Description:
Two copies of one chain form a homodimer.
Chain A: E1 4-7, E2 10-11, H1 17-28, E3 33-41, E4 46-53, H2 55-72, E5 88-97, H3 101-119, E6 123-125, H4 138-142, H5 145-152, E7 173-177, E8 182-188, H6 193-203, E9 213-220, E10 225-232, H7 240-252, E11 258-264, H8 269-279
Parallel strand pairs in A: 5-7, 6-7
Antiparallel strand pairs in A: 1-4, 1-5, 2-4, 2-5, 3-4, 8-10, 8-11, 9-10
Amino acid sequence: MAKIIECVPNISEGRNQQVIDEIVGIIKACPGVTFLDLSSDTSHNRSVLTFIGEPEPMENAVLAMTEAAIRLIDLRKHRGQHPRMGAVDVIPFIPIKEMDMQECVDFSKRVGNRLWQKYQLPVFLYEASATRPGRQNLADIRRGEFEGMTEKMTSEEWKPDYGDSLHPSAGAVAVGAREALIAFNINLSTSNVEVAKAIAKTIRTGGGGLSCVKALGIFLEERNLAQVSINMTNYKITPLYRVVELVKAEAKRWGVHVLGTEIVGLAPMDALVDSAEYYLQIENFNKETQVLEKHLL
Amino acid sequence: MAKIIECVPNISEGRNQQVIDEIVGIIKACPGVTFLDLSSDTSHNRSVLTFIGEPEPMENAVLAMTEAAIRLIDLRKHRGQHPRMGAVDVIPFIPIKEMDMQECVDFSKRVGNRLWQKYQLPVFLYEASATRPGRQNLADIRRGEFEGMTEKMTSEEWKPDYGDSLHPSAGAVAVGAREALIAFNINLSTSNVEVAKAIAKTIRTGGGGLSCVKALGIFLEERNLAQVSINMTNYKITPLYRVVELVKAEAKRWGVHVLGTEIVGLAPMDALVDSAEYYLQIENFNKETQVLEKHLL
């Protein structure tokens, strides 16, 4: 049985298709990795790539991708809606098969160290790989962004885990192991973004809401509706159905209902099976043995 | 990419554990097949086995299993609640991976032919492998059971597809390719079996209900409740959630609700993902590309 890791790096280019294509092409050309998804956002000027592979091919692909991003993306000229600190802004690794979180943490540290050694790109270890409290959360590491990072890194608190000075054009990168993240949006039967914002505030972890849920209220211009935009950082702790049911309950206060939802990119099978199990009220279901495909993986 | 077939044979022994163990052991000892599930019913005096493998190992395992069942099970002495016509009563093949239904039909015919050639066991091709109308349905083939089969087979209509005379102790077998079947039970908040029977009648295919649904109302003595016991013969046509929602709607007429459900044995991932998609109201979901594990199969 092979170990499989998923990698979902975010690169700071969402507009120049030639640059995006070249970086994607380099990953696709790496033997032993399978490219699964590209999602670019022009207003963010940022792309999310998804690929999977065994540890050694994965390491090679991440190095090749980073080399290309450093060569092709200059943060000094980068503008976009989304906060960023590097040409490759973040490199999350998710253990998919035959690998536990600790092994994936070790893998992320090996790759992080090589990124500094090989390309002089300073690395902050984050999420499960974080080496001190206050570094689990990417937003905390990235605060100040590329432009403020040189000064931030002079403090002992924000010394990178690998490296000591910012890369002049490519900035810094966060590398770490984490659970699969599900990008999940819930569309509401209102165009009033304030309703989405109020609901987002009540369901997210910070607001007395659910664990492992990040949520924002946004307005979707093309559909003239308000959306609760959610990152579920651990579907094993907080399942999809619980978020949907809580949003439905909170929406009632506003006389609003759920029009539909979206999963952006990929979701693990178990996240969907958990919700089927809940809604179908299946008793004593063993998802490790009773889902046929589990025996084929 | 390897072709994978699932086989779910029913053998006419559900009481003598030694015989069951020997037959299961013979399948487990076959290289290249993975044994997934055994479910024996003493009142039926019948066992359902589930295993998967590539075509060639699968063919060998089915031959080895049949040889053992012929040697160990004597239909002349068999008594049980469930209708049966053979020591191995039915051998369904389900195309799981890299194989379409027609290829699985061809496979079932090759295996069926060998069962007659090698063991003088007459074979009726059924379901997608049926060679004439009226032979898709196992119940029609089996009507008359072991005891009536010698006479039934003398008519032109019921001449076996392979072979011409009943095996003296092992009877006959139905062999065919079909879609995955899901054994799905719905427990009701009543001990009145008449309610379960009435609901079963309204939801099943014959009663103006849903396509590809077989249903019976039964009384579960150990839990003192009524259950709608369902075989879903094609979850791609009639999904799980539709059956649950229709049972809920029909149950209302009796002031009854659904306590819970059970999946007996295995279910394909897609059957569960379909229901998650429905209940979570996921828009534009592509289950071929957006479920991570699809890329690992």
